Amino acid sequence: MQTDKxxxxxxxxxxxxxxAQAKNKFEExxxxxxxxxxxxxxxxxxxxxxxxxxxxxISWYPYLLMPIGSIYSAIYFSKKERNNKxxxxxxxxxxxxxxxxxxxxxLGFLFANNLKENLIPVILVLLSxxxxxxxxxxxxxxxxxxxxFIGLSAFxxxxxxxxxxxxxxxIVSIIAILIPGxxxxxKQKRK
Length: 191
Prior knowledge:
By secondary structure, the chain is mainly α. The chain has one domain. The chain has 8 helices and no strands. It has helices at residues 8-28, 30-52, 65-83, 88-110, 112-115, 119-137, 141-157, 165-190. α4 (88-110) packs antiparallel against α6 and α7 packs antiparallel against α8 (165-190). The longest helix has 26 residues, at 165-190. The protein starts with 7 loop residues before the first helix and ends with a helix.
């Protein structure tokens, strides 16, 4: 069996093409960032309103939308996968988001009592990791800076009174997930 050796220039060109393909696929998915930005904002701000009105026992109910959002995302991406072949970078970033999502759901629904007032900052840290890795992988400064913003907000959340943490997460999701999703979608439509 004969193998062709790639020159350094050809290797670099191939790597650049793979990154460009991954970037195009994620920019097409600006919709999913918009979807999660809206969903997180709605659930978090709803929890804040419930807490401010002293409905402590049911304040977590809005988060029941999260597993539904995860199921929707899985269906959305499985349909996209059938239509487009994913490269290694796309598969890696998708796997990262699956792992992070499962961990966030487990933390939120099974370990909320253990984490108490640290739950939302910990979830924001995980979210920032996903956004930053996505930004680094597809060379998107917008996502990278959004991830940094989420991370800084997470650390601020550790110092915030717990009742205001859902409001922080809602605001952060609008600024660092919804708005970048809109920008990515608009960029893709212009192409």
